[in-house]
Amino acid sequence: MAVLLGAIADDFTGATDLANTLVQNGMRVAQVIGVPDAQTRIGQADAVVIALKSRTAPVAQAVSQSLSALEWLQERGARQILFKYCSTFDSTSKGNIGPVADALRARIDSDFALICPAFPANGRTIYQGHLFVGQQLLSDSPMKDHPLTPMRDASLPRLMQAQSHAKVGLIPHEVVRAGAEGIAQRIEALRAAGVGFGVADAISDDDLRALGAAIADHRLITGGSGIAMGLPDNFRKAGLLGPAQPPVATQATGRAVVLAGSCSEATRRQIAFAAQIWPIRKLDVDRIAAGHDVVAETRDWVTAQPAHLPVLIHGSADPKEVRQTQRRHGKAAAGEMVERTLGDLAVALRRQGFRRFVVAGGETSGAVVSALGIKALRIGPEIAPGVPWTETFDRDRLALALKSGNFGQDDFFSRAFSQGR
Ligand SMILES: Nc1ncnc2c1ncn2[C@@H]1O[C@H](COP(=O)(O)OP(=O)(O)OP(=O)(O)O)[C@@H](O)[C@H]1O
Ligand SMILES: O=C(O)[C@@H](O)C(=O)CO
């Protein structure tokens, strides 16, 4: 059976977020890690989400990986392609959202694509082209201090225009609110004016569903997981998608660990909460840089903890400390050292019988999932908006929850291990 929707996600937590939305809206979804090869089995899937680690990769690499992913999806007959990026539009003036979207648009030969990172359930809304995080403009939110992609502007048309060769326009809320027909007319007008990308305002799930209905025949869509909400219904209306199946709980049993690399405010609050109930340990970036075997030291510390409790290991630090660490070691190197250490730790802990992993942060999830050699994930029940449990297909099952840095309640980690499966 051909794939209906093919998605290319620029990080791993973003991929599970999107896969979760599609599962919640009744699609069978396979999430694959990296561009699949001929051997990758995806089972019976209505949608395939390819998780890349391209958000902060060099531009040329992000573009070429995304085009390879596109080719694989097109070979499987995908009717519609969704380029999934972060609901906080994580990028720099060089990219990678603009260059990847430009390249996909050219390859698909689509003259117009939507830009809509809105995710109202997690407080990301768009009004007059400005992205809000809760009550704050993106540029006033904690995203201004992100270790890799600090967001210092909230205007999506301006952010996109700096990265893309195409003309960028706006579909304002008054049009979106009026429904799918008006949205389609506005898109036609933008197209006629030579606009290649249209930022769509959206402040509610109803807005996202109206947008979804208006873009049923678009071959390329770009946005956050929210814009995917209305897409399964388009396939259902066209008689291509069967009735919804509820997600199946994960089966993995074994010790539980949280590996956190995200430095977001939400993750730091979640770590502080977990510190009251579980053993937790912070990685020392200077010791990693000095060549100490921090993986072995941390693994030995884990072994000494009570086996019935989850443990939490984090690189995460507040913005001031992150800045100081970056000054000492360089921005990319500091991030890479923490990611590599957490990835190697995941491998060491799997050898010690750990089977349930919560990973905080998109880049961090990329590092951990790659180190564990995971090729594909099945999507299980939702723990919090945008974060499902997932499970590997192998006989020696691992359950993983890949948590976007900013997502989840303060007690997310304990919720995940107690109720999420
Ligand atoms: N103490 C630290 N000093 C410098 N960099 C750090 C430190 N701790 C973590 N990092 C790095 O910060 C980056 C955090 O990015 P990551 O994508 O994992 O989280 P996030 O951006 O909050 O999550 P998401 O992408 O899901 O929104 C990683 O590269 C991580 O290695
Ligand atoms: O859209 C989001 O906020 C998340 O899915 C994500 O991409 C975090 O890395």
From TrEMBL:
Sequence ranges assigned to domain Four-carbon acid sugar kinase N-terminal in this UniProt record: 5-231
Keyword match Lipoprotein: no
Signal peptide: none
Residue ranges occupied by any Four-carbon acid sugar kinase nucleotide binding domain in the UniProt entry: 257-413
Keywords, alphabetical: ATP-binding, Carbohydrate metabolism, Kinase, Nucleotide-binding, Transferase
Pfam families: NBD_C, SBD_N
Keyword Cell inner membrane on entry: no
GO molecular function, one term: ATP binding
EC code(s) of this entry: 2.7.1.217
Source organism superkingdom: Bacteria
Reaction catalyzed: 3-dehydro-D-erythronate + ATP = 3-dehydro-4-O-phospho-D-erythronate + ADP + H(+); 3-dehydro-L-erythronate + ATP = 3-dehydro-4-O-phospho-L-erythronate + ADP + H(+)
SUPFAM superfamilies linked: YgbK-like
Protein task: Catalyzes the ATP-dependent phosphorylation of 3-oxo-tetronate to 3-oxo-tetronate 4-phosphate.
Family, per entry: Belongs to the four-carbon acid sugar kinase family.
Record-given protein name: 3-oxo-tetronate kinase
